[in-house]
Predict the 3D structure of the following.
Amino acid sequence: MPTAYIALGANLASPAGAPAQTFDAAIERLAELGAVSAQSSYLSTAPVGYADQPEFLNAVVALETELGPLALLNRLLAIEKEFGRDRSHGIVNGPRTLDLDLILFGDVVLDTPELQLPHPRMHERAFVLDPIFEIAPELMHPVLRKTVTQLKKELSPVS
């Protein structure tokens, strides 16, 4: 069964409460899609891109699932909606109640209009690499052929 790595991000309250409460509830929902085999701590991070917004809470979950990548993506988008996220409105990289990004799915490499795997910017984002490093430092990026530890060392301190 493949392991999917899902990044969580939020900086607005959702129907479940503050971002930490949203994460707790969202991880319960993710557990319905498979087995949560690892979970990072919740990290507070500065916004990237659009800076005029509250700090984000970020985390990563490792999920062992029988769903395929596109089916999992569709379930992630449905969970986001449950927690008040509307991707059709708002500012790009702006405030949100819940963001669930499929970062890696086993060693799958995929490039479709709906989904790119691995996530095309994961290696540029400390708020993704830091929580993955916490739970899977030796995880290999299937395209760059570098571990999370190596990618983290190469990351510029500004990201």
About this structure: The chain has a mean pLDDT of 92. The chain has four helices and seven strands. The CA atoms of residues 4 and 105 lie 4 Å apart.
